[in-house]
User: Which sequence fits this backbone?
């Protein structure tokens, strides 16, 4: 199971939201590249980088931070937040982004993501399905897409999808534990997909339980920033 620490960006700073609420924002660090270097120094290989400004606006905003992290670390970065055009996909892949998370476009313009998967390769994309219950949320979790997650994933699996990241918004930032039932269901329904769990991780025990469910990876955010999990705790879990 891959351990993927998260950096969420607002105004170029490292922040965390609670349940996706922009009014419940806490700034943890002024310089995200320093945080990324600390992850790298702890022998972590991956980074989940989200442009919350971009997700809200509907276009990538924090380009400067993206470039700086890619230039100053060797982390394998998956990026998301407002990606809606082929030009943005081109630019991100040329910069060296490992994979691009697509959420709103997948729900609203599925043919566009299917075309990107054909043109660039499905291995370069992650279907980012953020849910309240079974309902997919879009535009930085501000709107209901009126879609069931299982229907959405089924469509893209048939189109060659390899990676699925699912965030349970109800647990995100709450430090109350992940929605294990959700990930068990997804794993059972889509055994061939690489599933990335996100939201609610609060302890090493949570990570062990997700490892038992056999998700491919787990994103860890607030628990790291609040000191609930130490970077040194993560290395033994990374296989």
Assistant:
């Amino acid at each position: 199971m891959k351990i993927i620490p998260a950096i969420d960006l607002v105004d170029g700073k490292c922040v965390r939201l609670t349940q996706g609420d922009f009014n419940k924002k806490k700034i943890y660090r002024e310089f995200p590249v320093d945080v990324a270097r600390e992850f790298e120094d702890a022998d972590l290989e991956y980074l989940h980088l989200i442009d919350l400004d971009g997700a809200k606006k509907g276009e990538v905003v924090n380009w400067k931070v993206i470039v700086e992290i890619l230039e100053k670390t060797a982390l394998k970065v998956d990026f998301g937040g407002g990606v809606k055009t082929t030009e943005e996909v081109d630019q991100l892949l040329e910069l060296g982004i490992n994979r691009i998370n697509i959420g709103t476009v997948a729900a609203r313009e599925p043919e566009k993501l299917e075309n990107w998967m054909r043109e660039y390769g499905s291995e370069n994309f992650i279907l980012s399905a953020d849910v309240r219950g079974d309902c997919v949320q879009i535009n930085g979790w501000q709107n209901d897409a009126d879609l069931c997650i299982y229907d959405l994933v089924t469509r893209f699996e048939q189109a060659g999808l390899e990676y699925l990241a699912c965030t349970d918004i109800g647990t995100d930032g709450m430090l109350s534990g992940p929605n294990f039932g959700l990930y068990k269901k997804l794993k059972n329904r889509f055994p061939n997909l690489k599933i990335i769990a996100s939201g609610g991780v609060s302890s090493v025990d949570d990570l062990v339980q997700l490892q038992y469910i056999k998700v491919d990876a787990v994103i860890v955010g607030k628990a790291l920033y609040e000191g609930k999990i130490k970077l040194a705790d993560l290395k033994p879990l990374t296989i």
Q: What stands out?
A: Residues 34 and 69 are 9 Å apart (CA to CA).
